[in-house]
Amino acid sequence: MSAFNINIIRKDFPILNRSVYDKPLVYLDNAASTQKPRSVIERISKYYEEEHSNVHRGIHYLSQKATDYYEEGREKVQKFINAARSEEIIFTRGTTEGINLVANAFRQSSIGPGDEILISHMEHHSNIVPWQHVCEEKGATLKVIPINDEGELIMEEFEKLLNEKTRLVALVHVSNALGTINPVKEVIEKAHAQDVPVLIDGAQAIQHLKVDVQELDCDFYVFSGHKMYGPTGIGILYGKYDLLKEMPPYQGGGEMILSVDFDKTVYADVPHKFEAGTPHIAGVIGLGAAIDYINQVSLDEIAKHEEEVLHYGTEVLSGIKGLKMIGTAKYKSSVLSFDLNGIHPHDVGTIIDREGVAIRTGHHCAQPVMNRYGVPATSRASIAMYNTKEEIDELAKAIEKVITTFA
Amino acid sequence: MSELQELYQQVILDHNSNPRNFGSLEHANFTAKGHNPLCGDVIELDLQVENDSISEIKFKGHGCAISKAASSVMTTLVKGKTKEEALEQFHSFQKVMMEDGKFDEMSTLAAFEGVKEFPSRIKCAILPWHALRAALEGEEVATTE
What we know:
The complex is a heterodimer.
Chain A: H1 6-12, E1 19-20, E2 23-24, E3 26-27, H2 38-51, H3 61-80, E4 89-92, H4 95-107, E5 116-120, H5 129-138, E6 141-145, H6 155-161, E7 166-172, H7 184-192, E8 198-201, H8 213-216, E9 220-224, E10 235-239, H9 241-246, E11 257-260, E12 265-267, H10 281-297, H11 299-318, E13 323-325, E14 335-340, H12 345-353, E15 357-358, E16 360-362, H13 367-372, E17 378-382, H14 389-405
Parallel strand pairs in A: 3-15, 5-6, 5-7, 7-8, 8-9
Antiparallel strand pairs in A: 1-2, 4-10, 9-10, 11-12, 13-14, 14-17, 16-17
Helix pairs in contact in A: 2-10, 3-10, 4-5, 11-14, 12-14
Chain B: H1 3-7, H2 10-17, E1 30-36, E2 41-50, E3 53-62, H3 65-78, H4 83-98, H5 122-136, E4 141-143
Parallel strand pairs in B: 1-4
Antiparallel strand pairs in B: 1-2, 2-3
Helix pairs in contact in B: 2-3, 3-5, 4-5
């Protein structure tokens, strides 16, 4: 593998070539969704042009091929996160559906009054609301691990909250609003010491950090294809085989059965038990191409480059008068969230947008985090492998325009 | 003027930094909350209506420059108006912003013409007007969605 070459990488992403409002696009909204390399786009086209058919049922040539490619996608994911077996990889629509699938199993479990589910103050709404539903329905209690001013988990509080009533810890790996990298391994060890399973929301981690589910020993790990250079509409739930085997199916339908009689239906085994209906075949194949692309560039090199750009961005933005960084954890990845003189992020975003710079403004589906910092919303620039220091300079210039407008 | 200058006109910037009728009313008899769930903006509106006319109106909350200026301008325009007149203004404001037409050049509302070039921001301008309509029609919460 050759050294990391940003120019070659940028050429691999066709959209980076375009301009908006007659200005070169500076895309810094990667935590919302990353752009796609040509190899992913072409792989999906090829599938539809030459290989499409339904999976797991036809005995004709194309159906066999589609099935092979689909299952090959599963194996690519397995290797990418070092899962023990490919059956531990369940395809979903995205991170949200993965969490809901696990929450559904909890809803049907013996969890009840007096039991507790533990989440953190920096969760995305997708790792809050499903657990609220479970707690409301079953009379259990949702407990929240607090965070400090830097945006780090307060581990002593976590240890205090973890007790014999805890039935699950559901924690984000990298915060989408703050960029904090949580000490998930330590959390998992401590939870396991009390026999509590752990679900990790890896939607903002998987494209930036090497994730090894066996080394982490997490019970569930969920993420989305579209945030890791793959297509939208495809997500991954990793679960330990023994746990998945015990879990009830999520949806009923075709694909997830062994046999159906009006008296009794026998479900298919893991993973197909959780994949009712025709799956997102093109999504899985595109995801496989995205994983190939990441592997080809190398996640280590990506992480090194992003770290440099993040470090530079932190320095440049912190130097802007009136700009306050939100989320200053010691271990951070890819996210620059900030408040600018109290100017509302929507105004910041609108002005920056006209300079061709795309950032996200709002509450980032993490309203409890916003409340923690006493702001209704933040402006957030988020970095991917193709971003450069020059783009950070463009962002800084655009921010200066905002300051001038509101001077 | 560039589109951005059209959007952030002096009138809007002025109402944003010095909002009129900002605060709450102790003896409000009509109130409503306006939500924009997309961005989390919230505007709380208090009105005192006597003999069918709006004698006092105040707003508070957090929002962008556009929604704050729109709230401020709205309060100055509907103060002293009857409920019916205020609702009429809501409808005509909504019509110009969402469909077609122009504001009277002399009206403060003309400052909001520029918002129409920014479709993602139209809801910001309409939010306080939704809250006003809700308050006058006895609803407690209005959303832009």
